[in-house]
Amino acid sequence: MSASIKDNVSEPGRWDESPVLTVENLTMRFGGLVAVDDLSFNVGRGDITALIGPNGAGKTTVFNCVTGFYKPTEGRIIMRHGSAISDAEVRKLTESGEQSMSTAEGAIFLLERMPDFCISRDAKVARTFQNIRLFGGMTVLENLLVAQHNALMAASGFTIGGIFNLPGFRKARQKSIDKAVYWLEHIRLKERADEPAAALPYGDQRRLEIARAMCTDPQLLCLDEPAAGLNPRESSELNELLQFIRSEAGTSVLLIEHDMGVVMEISDHVVVLDYGEKISDGSADYVRNDPSVIAAYLGVEDEEVAEAEAEAAAAAAAAAAAASAAGQTMSGGEPAGEQETKP
Amino acid sequence: MSNINQAGSADEQQAPGALVEWEQRVAGYAGEPPFVEEPQRLSAIAAALKDAAIAAAIAAALFLFFIGFRTDIAIGGLDLTTRWQAFGTAIVVVFVGRLLFRILLWRPATKAGTRPLLLRAFGSGEGTPLSEHFARHSKSVGVVALVAAVLYPVIILALFPMKDKQFIDLGVLVLTYIMLGWGLNIVVGLAGLLDLGYVAFYAVGAYSFALFAQFFEVGFWFALPIAGILAACWGLILGFPVLRLRGDYLAIVTLAFGEIIRVVLLNWYTFTGGPNGISGIPDPTFFGLEFARGDDNLPGLLGIGYDSAYKQAYFFYIILALAMITNLVTLRLRKLPLGRAWEALREDEIACRSLGINTTNTKLTAFAIGAMFGGFAGAFFATRQGFISPESFTFMESALILAIVVLGGLGSQMGVVIASIVMIGGFELFRDFAEYRMLIFGLLMVIIMVWRPRGLIATREPSAILKERQTISADMVAQGEGH
User: Where do the TM regions start and end (chain B) (predicted)?
Assistant: First the structure.
């Protein structure tokens, strides 16, 4: 059952015990370009996992493979519903050639075999986009209702019952509005529910996109740079929202992020990519002190790595002290050493 | 600040609160110092007068040679005559026209206080007054329009006993295009898929009924659903190859599809009659009774005497009912998950897929349902004409229906009605000025597109409301593929 990743850059952790998502030997080639090279990592159930790396490291490509927007060249992506799923069952599904299989206490999905919309509908993996993709001409409420399309479609008897406004559909519609309002309250946009999404400020649009993804009832939420372009206040609000999603909704989160303040504060587990390869994998502290991560971000020569490592350790200690003293400040207790590492 | 993280500690919540305060203080300092703007001395009327005077002066300079002087061929060369009266008239027309245009319609780049009279009368607030006006009263406008449509044949029969047949026929024609416009609106306006071959489904519907009537001698009411289903099947057949196409490519393939259907109808001589078409298509009955001479038929039984205008009125009510079904189904679908998925597809297809919406099925249902209403309209067209041939289903028809949808405003039901009345009704009324008809038609399209580039009624009505209805202005609404 435990699917720990055996390579020399990974720190074993609780994410290996019962992963919700396992990426195995994922390779994505575009012609001659190898965007992702033999990548393996686990996403722990109920964890916030961050995927970081310098620009062009292949993070978004991994996301697109997981959510079905790209078909990976090689590799296996396993999504597990329910924690008690044995390796034998996964092997059985892989050999059967099917896309998914229900087990005694859940289901297994092989995402690399599934079309994109099925990954959201059946495997319950939702995503947001680096450049926000809201339905701009539709209202905030409508955006959240579109996300509940499949549930509503079934309730409307594939439109036939809906045309005659049968009671079953009326009930489902009210339920969908209640769910939308629940999320609107949590992203504090209830007052603007009837405004077109394109009229919202940028930070609100980011939060709305997350709420829209949550309306699909995902087991795994993939966020592509959710804090990009947010001011310090908005990104601290985002941290709260993500922690709420993890604790209350019980959804595991996989996020790509450049804002180290956000990453280090909320992540349980960090995976670092560089040139399509995994260079580090472990807890936030482990990754922060990993010399190869520092080298990748600063682009230093090998002999300077040791020096940088010492500097980072000092910065981390200072940051830990500062964080405990000040709580959430401007950049969420961001250590000075990491600030410079932002590309 | 934080009703999200209930579990957060008190000082964690305080820090962002302090940040908000700090941001608000900074915002308070920002911006320019307050100053009072000089009140505008020149009133709107004076500005308009000045503008009209300038236009008149330019017109005078131009028209002096065009209108003021006239040369005639005379013995020994040219004879110059002056026409000061015509010259003066032209300048006065320009002056008055410009003045009215400026006061009533045109909005110069000034503040809201000096908005033109007509626009002020039509709505309140900034932006698109005409649309807002319609949006706010869309329901009552619709009801008034429906009542007017129901009473139309009665009024025509009472007021124009000599020309009744002609006027009711015009009403039937306008309603046919309204129905086609509403059908196409599903595909183009809601799902955002540009379809240049919509007339193909109209043709499929018409030929379905005509051929069924010819070979199996079925009546209109029996053939009507068959025509709709067959057209929907052809919608699916068109849908499959174009699923992956976008923009120009989608437009070209749908255009080709429309032409293929027409060319097949033209050349499959043994089955469709080719260019000779199919004639003798039966009229619709009224519960088995016909609108014909004789005591056994409906006018005879009612004792009102035969008048061909009655049959026209019957056609009018049939197409009115068909069009209203199209309208009501569309309005209903917009509030259902399917219709909302169409609009989401128009806004962003990739986001739709990320939310688990099967975009293939969603597109195909849009094509099929749009085509089905085209098929109904086609069957009606066949029974009204009594004769159909491929001539009736040229690309010009597709372009006309698309023009109605675009001029009316993509996705707007009322816009289609207005555009159909203006374009088809106007087109027929100007039949006497045959040579200027296309000129006026073209000019009208240019004017509408300059004045309202997103169509007459460009605002979008939300399909679900939490608290209050807000119309969405056109610049936020995506137009979908191929625009």
Answer: 52-69, 84-105, 141-160, 172-191, 198-216, 222-242, 249-269, 314-333, 364-387, 399-424, 436-453
